[in-house]
Design brief:
The longest helix has 21 residues. The chain is 41% helix and 10% strand. The chain contains 17 helices and ten strands. The protein has 373 residues and is an alpha+beta fold. Among the domains are: 170 residues, no CATH class; 76 residues, no CATH class. Strand 5 and strand 6 form a beta hairpin. It is elongated, with a radius of gyration of 23 Å. The strands form four sheets. It has a four-stranded antiparallel beta sheet with strand order 1-2-7-4, with helices on both faces. Strands 3-10 form a two-stranded parallel ribbon. It holds the Pfam family Fer4_16. Belongs to the QueG family. Its cofactor is [4Fe-4S] cluster; cob(II)alamin. This is Epoxyqueuosine reductase.
């Protein structure tokens, strides 16, 4: 069926929804999405899992996870009239010469989660999804829809799983057999009763590499994440003080953590992104910690413009880097840099700088040769 036929079908009430679904997937690929799937809105199992997670307090200070009640798991309550979700995947693994493991092993460098190296994905995906919706509208006429990408109370992974984009792995990230987990998700909530796709099956098997590698043991059981221990939560979502027992475990990870994805066998099939917007910018793929710690607030705002990193704010940036410097091998340059921030106007920064100086002093003492009797 042609687009014109589809439009006439909409007007006459005989719209070929199967043909439209096929067109949507084709249009999505041309717009740069690697996979488009369609899900119904029944999320009963996901709702139970979410409520149990919230009841256990594993969301930490992310009060927004509970703020909207059941709108997160009941799409029709978030956007009245919604009967289907168009779920879209866009790969983001950057083409870079730097080996992530090498960066993690070099305590003079800061590790930034690979998803945040380029332009803020929220804007990129929403704009592209909006174009897809407009293309649908041009084909069939006006219809009800709203576009999201990690920008509202949406169960993105559960919906993507139902739409056949992959399965939720033991680390709680979505996995695809042909793409691993290095991708973003976005959705179009719609009132069109499109034919839903079939969910895929899980292929984690007996593997628990992600559970074993987690620096803070935040994956407390297969498919169960305690965000309060997760380095991504501690360095991004948490606004206050990072618990002292967890600071040494953070290493040099200053924005997010990728360990569970880096070790996952399925990511051998990950594809390098074709989106230039996701290419590393401002030299942040393998930056020197001391250079980052020297940034003024104006430099931070300038160099993170259009980046997801900006959301943690300058104080969170200094807090995270102070922890990483405290975890580094003792060095006079590090001590001098920390001392330069010791009287910072922010109590949050002062606290973490003081801790880092204490760690540097402790390790310096441990490394000093002892006098022979």
């Amino acid at each position: 069926m042609s687009i014109i036929d589809t439009m006439h079908g909409r007007e006459s009430g005989t719209l070929d929804l199967n043909a439209l679904a096929a067109d949507i997937k084709q249009w999505g690929r041309k717009l740069g999405f690697q996979h488009i799937g369609i899900a119904d809105i029944a999320l009963g199992e996901a709702e139970k899992h979410l409520l149990d997670w919230l009841q256990a307090g594993r969301h930490g200070e992310m009060a927004y996870m509970a703020r909207h009640g059941l709108k997160r798991t009941r799409p029709g309550e978030l956007v009245p009239g919604t009967v289907r979700i168009i779920s879209a995947r866009m790969d983001y693994w950057p083409e870079a010469d730097d080996d992530p493991w090498r960066i993690l092993e070099d305590d003079s460098l800061g590790y930034i989660s690979r998803y945040a190296l380029g332009r803020d994905y929220h804007k990129v995906l929403r704009k592209r999804l909006q174009r897809l919706a407009k293309q649908m509208e041009a084909a069939i006429g006006p219809f009800g829809y709203r576009v999201f990408s990690d920008s509202a109370p949406v169960m993105e992974k559960a919906l993507a799983e139902k739409a056949g984009l992959g399965w939720v792995g033991k680390h709680t990230n979505l996995l695809a057999r042909d793409a691993g987990s290095w991708f973003f998700l976005g959705e179009i909530y719609t009132d069109l009763p499109l034919p839903p796709d079939s969910a895929t099956t899980s292929h984690c098997g007996t593997c628990q590499a992600c559970i074993d590698i987690c620096p803070t043991q935040a994956i407390v059981a297969p498919y169960q994440l305690d965000a309060r221990r997760c380095i991504s939560y501690l360095t991004i979502e948490l606004r206050g003080s990072i618990p002292e027992p967890l600071r040494p475990l953070i290493g040099n990870r200053i924005y997010g953590c990728d360990d569970c994805q880096l070790v996952c066998p399925w990511n051998r099939y990950a594809q390098v992104t074709r989106e230039k917007d996701f290419s590393p910018r401002h030299g942040l793929a393998a930056p020197q910690l001391l250079d980052l710690f020297a940034w003024s607030e104006e430099e931070f705002l300038s160099r993170t413009e259009g980046s997801a990193i900006r959301r943690i704010g300058y104080l969170g940036w200094l807090r995270n880097i102070a922890v990483a410097l405290g975890n580094a091998a003792p060095h006079p340059h590090i001590i001098r840099a920390l001392q330069s921030r010791a009287d910072h106007s922010s109590a949050l920064v002062r606290e973490h700088v003081a801790w880092a100086l204490g760690e540097q002093a402790r390790k310096s003492r441990a490394a000093a040769p002892t006098e022979e009797n």
